[in-house]
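Sync notes, pocket subgroup
Present: LS, DG
LS reminded everyone that the earlier model was apo-only. Rerun requested with magnesium ion included. Inputs:
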Amino acid sequence: MNRPRAPLMPLDDALAQLLAQAQPLAEVEQVSTFDADSRVLAQDLVSALQVPAHDNSAMDGYALRCADLARPAEGASLPVSQRVAAGSPALPLQPGTAARIFTGAPIPLGADAVVMQEDCEVQPDQSIRVLRPPQPGQWLRRAGEDVAKDAVVLSKGERLTPASTALAASIGMDQLPVARRPRVALFSTGDELVMPGEVAPQNMRPGAIYNSNRFFLRALLQRLGCVVTDYGIVPDQRAATEHALRDASQAHDLILTSGGVSVGEEDHVKPAVQALGQLNLWQIAIKPGKPFAYGRVGGAHFIGLPGNPVSSYITFLLLVRPFLLSLQGATQLVPQAMALPAHFAWPRADQRREFLRVRRNAAGGLDLFANQSSGVLTSAAWGDGVVDNPPGQTIAHGDMVRFISLAELQA
Ligand code: AMP
Ligand code: MG
């Protein structure tokens, strides 16, 4: 029987509707700065000091006053009046002298430049002759040039990186306030699914396939900072499914399923969610992808992804990822696309927005994976990005296209 097809929903509308449901988790936790990588900062970080705290030397060499070299009487040779190592204080510079200085050591008051030791000659009387006259300010690192006192060094909603945790450490933070980890219950659906390790490849019954989605879903959830409860493959019975969903809804922010959201499919998750809460089935105008479910079970969000591996993977990256980042209060939800030349042709336009699996080549262009089928997981493992191709658009060799890095989408 042919039912009239519902119009497809543009991806941006689906994302906006989904994000409208993603109330940020209220709880903030303090974690060691060592453990804060990839977590979302819950408050602005304001510096209580300037970094560097003092003007200091960028080189091993000699600190001096440039004006002292302008007087040729001494033959541009200056006696060395003190030695300043990193971590020890400096005395004011005696006029007409130089201070031996090392990288990171504070600049003596009165010195206005550092000459690197390679540009100095130590004389028999231990004074130094400057071979290359410096400009004022040479090899000086200015106090506060990295961070000014009271500056916001990192903002609420930023996702922390190794560099930003180090920046937080540089202003003295050993603990950081971050959003708590979302708790996610993961379900796989489908009677054809078998776990690798349970049945050897040569013993697989006809029609059986290994549950591959569970592996990228769990890994992606973990990368996004989630605590995952993996319910495995839910048994194909209504009562067991409802029981598992009810159980999962009590202690999780999100119940995520793969499979069983296609139109008209026999599946127990959809009716079970409908019975316990509410469910909306969307047909999203993307390829791969399209079927997608959003609903609620008790206090938990419910998201149902399609079963086809690449559809599931792409819809996770385009919709579930921003949803989970939004729960954590992140401000940057979607990576920046960049314009790169296609080194392939895509002569058949599709009415859906397509996400083609591609790889950057050494010539600065993009190669296309030959088989773009939504079941071909190799395309996703091979690719290092996707081309975001608008609906109705063909691509000629050399055309500039929108490239989105998979490394960024998977971060
Ligand atoms: P469905 O969305 O349940 O209609 O599934 C669409 C296709 O994806 C079918 O060929 C399923 O066998 C396959 N599929 C569903 N779930 C998984 C999974 N967890 N791992 C690999 N393939 C799956
Ligand atoms: Mg299925």
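DG: The chain has nine helices and 27 strands.
LS: Residues 51 and 144 are 5 Å apart (CA to CA).
Action: DG to write up.
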